[in-house]
Amino acid sequence: MSTYSSFDLTIDSGVAHLVLGNAAKMNALARAFWVELPQAVAELDRGGNVRALVISSTGPIFCSGIDLSIFGDQSLGSVATPAERERLKHLVLRLQDSLSCLHDSRFPVLVAVQGACLGAGLDLISACDMRWGTADSFYVIQEINLGIMADLGSLQRLPQLLPDAVLRELAFTGSKLSADRAYGYGFLNGVVENHEDAIATALQAARTIAQKSPLAVAGSKQCLNYAVGHSLAESLDFCATLQSAIFDPADVMAQVMAMKTKTPHQTKDLLVVKGLSG
After folding, report:
1. Half-sphere exposure (CA, 13 Å, Cβ side) for 141?
2. pLDDT in tens, 79-94
3. What is the mean pLDDT of residues 57-69?
4. CA distance 265 to 248
5. Which of 82, 150, 189, 211 is most buried (most C-beta within 10 Å)?
6. Contact 107/50 with Cβ under 8 angstroms?
7. What's the pLDDT at 250?
8. What does the alpha-carbon distance between residue 101 and residue 71 come to, in Å, rounded to a whole number?
9. What is the separation of C-alpha 58 from the centre of its chain, rounded to a whole number of angstroms?
10. Which ranges of the chain does DSSP label H, i.e. alpha helix?
């Protein structure tokens, strides 16, 4: 497994754990992160042996957003000419893609949040499948407080995760969404007392997922993702087609017998995704 400069990544019994480790800068997402995250997720996805990914961070704050030092290179944000504006569009698209890999991965992505989750940090966790937060955690569309529009996914993903009026409140005012409110709206799977409990809870949920058929879990994630933006009829047809493709009678019967006898059943990993070069 590759090593990365912007986070630590470990794998244990099918559960990967990615830890943001830049607590000195409040886990701001620096230039390397945007390159390394999609590389890491792609490597895990291709391998087939990871069944769930947990994301957490160090220090009192989960993430303060994008590292603004990225824009020390003034050419990145220059919009003086049509060509520069076209270039900026593609920079934003590349940053969006860096987080979309979490949504698109074959395995579920779970996240443990402590303290502040601001700006791009909220974009990041919005792309995850399940979220736990500490009692003191809070969530802010920070971009509006800096005079810009959020553009890395929050405005596109949060409509499926929060009530419309609440999302508009956050997007227009830059106010804090408390952990209790976030849980009440269903954005958080749970609120826990402290940082350690948040990580432990997310890891335990990931281990539970890791005991299920990864083929069925991957199919379930595909169906849930597809249902957003498609009609009920389209989604049902997609589900039927996918089920007919992945249904494995022998594995289902083995799992039924394991349930009846209360014995563990070792499910098979997903296959390695190989490129044309092997």
Report:
1. 24
2. 889 998 998 899 999 9
3. 95
4. 15
5. 150
6. yes
7. 86
8. 23
9. 17
10. 31-47, 82-104, 120-126, 154-157, 164-173, 179-184, 195-210, 214-227, 232-246, 249-261
Examine the pLDDT at 53 and tell me if it is beyond 90.
yes
Nearest to 118 by CA among 68, 160, 71: 68
H-helix segments, 161-194: 164-173, 179-184
Given the structure tokens 């493709």, which residue do they identify? 245
Angle at 39 between CA 213 and CA 89, to 5 degrees: 115
Mean pLDDT value across residues 233-259: 92
* CATH class for the domain made up of 7-210: alpha beta
Chain centroid to CA 240: how far? Answer: 26
pLDDT at position 278 is 56
Determine the residue type at 22: N
Q: 204 pLDDT exceeds 90?
A: yes
Token pair of 79 as six digits: 């919009």
In the chain, what percentage of residues exceed pLDDT 70? 99
Spatial distance between the Cα atoms of 84 and 231, rounded to a whole number of angstroms: 38
| Predicted local confidence at residue 257, as pLDDT | 87
| Amino acid sitting at position 38 | P
Q: Within 13 Å and on the Cβ side, how many CA atoms surround 109?
A: 21
Do residues 65 and 29 touch, judged by C-beta distance below 8 A?
yes
Summary mean pLDDT of the chain:
94
Amino acid identity, position 27: N
pLDDT value of residue 166: 98
What phi, psi does 153 have (nearest 5°)?
130, -20
Tokens, residue 147: 């005079």
For the chain, percent of residues with pLDDT exceeding 90: 83
Sign of CA dihedral 53, 191, 136, 127: positive
160: tokens are: 């499926």
